[in-house]
Amino acid sequence: MSGAWVAGVTRARGMLVRRLGIPGARHIAAAGTMEDALRGLGTTPYGRQLNPGTPLPAAQRAVTATLLWHLRVLAGWLPRRGVECLRLLASGFEIANIESHAHRLAGSGEEPPPYALGALATVWGRVARATEPEGLRAALTASPWRDPGGTAASMAVTLRLTAAARIAARIPPAARWSAGRAALLVARERFVHDRPLPAAANGPAVGVLGAAARAPTYRDYRHRLPTSAGWALHGIDDPADLWQAEGRWWRDIEQDGLYMTRRARYDMVPVVGAVAVLSTDAWRTRAVLELAADDAAPPEGFDALV
User: Fold this and answer.
1) Counting CB atoms within 10 angstroms of each CB, which of 104, 115, 147, 257 has the fewest?
2) Which fold is adopted by the domain 1-77+254-292?
3) Alpha helix locations (H) across the chain?
4) Is the dihedral angle over the CA atoms 192, 193, 197, 201 positive or is it negative?
5) What tens digit of pLDDT does each residue of 253-297 get?
6) What is the spatial distance between Cα 123 and Cα 129, in angstroms, rounded to a whole number?
7) Are 27 and 53 in contact (CB under 8 A)?
8) pLDDT, position 179
């Protein structure tokens, strides 16, 4: 046990105290209007970047930016191995930056400012300097992300599956979550959108999901999934119901994460657990903002989030 792990785990556990949580999220969901929801969040850690009148997309992005800030702070308390793991767990932020930059280079319209990744960046500094799509692809190919393909659709899927494969291989406490997430992503691509996986995505998909990645039907896909991934689709007989599985995935990793943080140990396990809990809290907060902004949202809409 090192002093850095003790400090990092203590900090990670402390961050959970001020999270919104289910009771707080329920209160925000019942606010009635977007303005009331924003006021309600003003006294929470998410309120730092929220102001009255903030439109929904900007408010949701502010929530995820707050999560990123917390992860960056946590990284400052961890030893090198902890920072490496945190960088992998936070890779979705770098993927979002890469996708936005790719759209910007392709002239696809206005994109939000990139997330400030700090020490959690893998290759963003080099990618951000790319001035043409070919340069962006070359920067990724020379990095741990490898070649994600040349189209926006290929990049979106391949980067996420590559992240899932890297997490599953290098962070054992998060391997089950990562495999389940990959199973949901592939199922949505292949059996909801009816699109084959991009060629660049086949390697990481097979690495995490095995033979299931090439299954011809959804039924075969579920049957062939390894136990490490199949749990995420349990009871989902129709691809149209995958949205239920995605909400359940978040709830499951939150419960797993809470259990991990309560274990009396000072290593990566409680830190991984805290990241899962904080990430789920941000996901739920984004969702309740959407409910508050939708005048037609049914009162029971919150029940799908808990």
Assistant:
1) 104
2) Topoisomerase I; Chain A, domain 4 (1.10.132)
3) 3-15, 21-29, 34-41, 56-75, 80-89, 91-105, 124-128, 133-141, 152-170, 175-187, 202-209, 218-224, 227-230, 242-262, 268-293
4) negative
5) 999 999 999 987 899 999 999 999 999 999 999 999 998 888 656
6) 11
7) no
8) 98
